[in-house]
Amino acid sequence: MKALLALAVAFLVLPPGASAATDVYIGISPGQEAPKTALALAKFLPERPDSPEDLAMAESFRDVVRADLMYSRYFDIKEDPLSPANLDSSPESLAYWKALAGQLITGKVEDTGTVWTFTARLHDLNTGAVVDKFYRGEKRAMRRAAHIFSDEIIQRLTGHAGIAHSKLAFANNSSGSKEIYLIDYDGENLTRLTSDNSINLLPRWSQDASKIYYTTYRWGNPDMFEIDLKAGKIRPFTTIQGLNIPGGLSPDGLTMVMTLSRGKDPNIYSLDVASRELTKLLKDFGVSSSPTWSPDGKQVAFVSDRSGNPQIYILDMATGNTRRLTRMNWCDSPSWSASGDGIVFSGRETPRESLNIFITDLTGSQIRRLTDKAGSNEDPSWSPDGRFVAFTSTRRGRREIFMMDADGSAPHPLVDLPGQSYTPNWSP
Questions:
Q1: pTM, entire model
Q2: By the 8 A CB rule, do 256 and 244 touch?
Q3: Cα–Cα dist 348/375, whole Å
Q4: For position 4, what pLDDT does the model report?
Q5: What CATH class has 167-426?
Q6: Strands 75-78 and 103-111
Q7: What is the pLDDT of residue 6?
Q8: Is 293 exposed, middle or buried (0-12, 13-18, 19+ CB in 10 A)?
Q9: Which of 111, 243, 368, 417 is deepest in the core (most CB within 10 A)?
Q10: Structural domain boundaries of the chain?
């Protein structure tokens, strides 16, 4: 179910002089664009100069890395396919690139048919230090290796974790039933995970991204099932009579927060994963659902119609105290940012308007609309770095997965998939 990738990573610091076309959507908020770091990207070379297979694979690796680095918004990519640095790492070649950027990426690739090798190098053109990375894997793992390398570059040069290796889980009905799918953050490697011939919705990731929990009517009742991506197995997780809807695992992975109905109005519960002990978290809150953990595991945001229309509330897990966060006509599907200072949600301000995506601070006093006059927009989910939001939108006629910057700029469809898509959830 999940491609296995064997990675051998070598770190090597060498003294100075030692040898060793994808669509990209850029969102710019006027007056707020952060300065980008100049980063040179040379042509990746075939390990065997006369091998067309090596050349084609080298170009594929470079295309993925280039798109990842551009999408990160951190870098001003400098590239010149005719530059001398594409041929060797001589002092003259490195001097050529030093005039353009402080860092240079080069790479070599070999494709043996069943296994490829990717040797990448990051040159610090100011100090002469070099970092080497070596990857090996099967054909199906090529993109994952390129994403991992891109994220290592981002982490090393910016100090921030990259999201190129992240994925999204979502539901889609193109097969005639709602099934759970998996896709890379850039819209590639679409994989269907379930074949239940039923209604499957609301996937949620484990903290280590090894499991996905979702609600399914496979056995008639809306049960919660678990997909073990490493083992390639799907098994029941909770099968309590009534709704079993995952909200997500706590940051320590020990507690699932979820929506259960148990023959009554839906309410928010916590489940101890080890002991399977259930705890009802709310009293006198009417219909409550859509819980989401804060990054520190101390609070849970949720939706309740206690005031009449659905609004977002925050529950303090230590004290049990709750406070209301929104005062709109309708609110749903909150998702807490990785930084912990914002919650994105779908909602509407007046009864006649379509649902849109909003973001609020934790006081509820600063609410900003991220989508407007572009169909119905729902089910937002933060990227792991808090810089992007995935959501569903009907702006092109059918319900599709879209992505945008956290300021609402650069909205674009993730993948052109038939049918209707629902409830995306971004992996850690």
A1: 0.87
A2: no
A3: 12
A4: 29
A5: mainly beta
A6: unpaired
A7: 32
A8: buried
A9: 111
A10: 37-158, 167-426
Predicted local confidence at residue 364, as pLDDT: 93
* CB-count burial class (<10 Å; 0-12, 13-18, 19+) for 340: middle
Cβ proximity of 247 and 290 under 8 Å? yes
pLDDT at res. 50: 92
Distance CA 11, CA 29 (A): 37
- pLDDT at site 382: 96
Cα–Cα distance for residue pair 424/402, rounded to 1 Å = 9
Residue-by-residue DSSP string for 377-396 = EEEEEE-TTSSEEEEEE-TT
Residues 6+ apart with CB under 8 A from 9: 133, 134, 135
According to CATH, the superfamily of the domain at 37-158 is ABC-type transport auxiliary lipoprotein component (3.40.50.10610)
Does an H or E element contain 248, and which? Answer: strand 244-249
CB 257 within 8 A of CB 247: yes
Those residues of the chain that have pLDDT short of 70 are 1-34, 81-89
Inter-residue contact 161 to 50 (CB < 8 Å)? no
Q: List the structure tokens of 271.
A: 């489940």
Nearest in space to 204 (alpha carbons), one of 148, 244, 155, 264: 244
The residue written with tokens 């940051």 in the block is: 251
